[in-house]
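About this split. The held-out portion is used to measure sequence recovery: a designer receives only the structure tokens and must propose an amino acid at every position. Recovery is the fraction of positions where the proposal matches the reference. Here is one held-out target exactly as it appears in the evaluation file.
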């Protein structure tokens, strides 16, 4: 099926997902990626320091999003014998407001965080809870169209 966006606007009823930071800044979700934190780990003790370091090194922007700045929110650790949360989440967020350069067209950032569970929560809420305290002006990159 193809869409002609000029003539058939009712066929393509796009409502972007908006996320609001505690600062009041509204962001638009451009992409969301979810993976298992220990996915791909073939051997080793998941509590071993080298495994944790391996996982931290594997945190990177999904390839289909291109070269983007990544900000990773560390997992809350309850002690040395704590597993990392089950899910590793990525959100590609943008704003029409530049983070620093007043001549830019907007700003963007890929945010990574760990989630224990996403059960019975809408994705918007999962994302908003994770990024609500983000200092967008310090972390986001400005862009030009």
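Reference sequence for scoring:
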């Amino acid at each position: 099926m193809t869409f002609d966006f000029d003539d058939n606007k009712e066929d393509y009823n796009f409502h972007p997902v908006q996320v609001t930071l505690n600062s009041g800044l509204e962001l638009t979700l451009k992409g969301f990626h979810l993976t298992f934190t220990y996915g791909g780990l073939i051997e080793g003790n998941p509590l071993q320091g080298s495994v944790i370091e391996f996982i931290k090194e594997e945190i990177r922007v999904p390839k289909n999003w291109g070269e983007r700045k990544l900000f990773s929110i560390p997992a809350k650790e309850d002690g040395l014998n704590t597993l990392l949360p089950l899910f590793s989440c990525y959100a590609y967020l943008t704003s029409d407001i530049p983070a620093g350069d007043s001549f830019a067209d907007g700003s963007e950032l890929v945010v990574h965080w760990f989630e224990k569970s996403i059960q019975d929560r809408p994705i918007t809420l999962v994302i908003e809870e994770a990024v609500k305290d983000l200092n967008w002006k310090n972390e986001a990159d400005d862009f030009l169209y």
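Annotator remark: The chain is about 15% helix and 25% strand.
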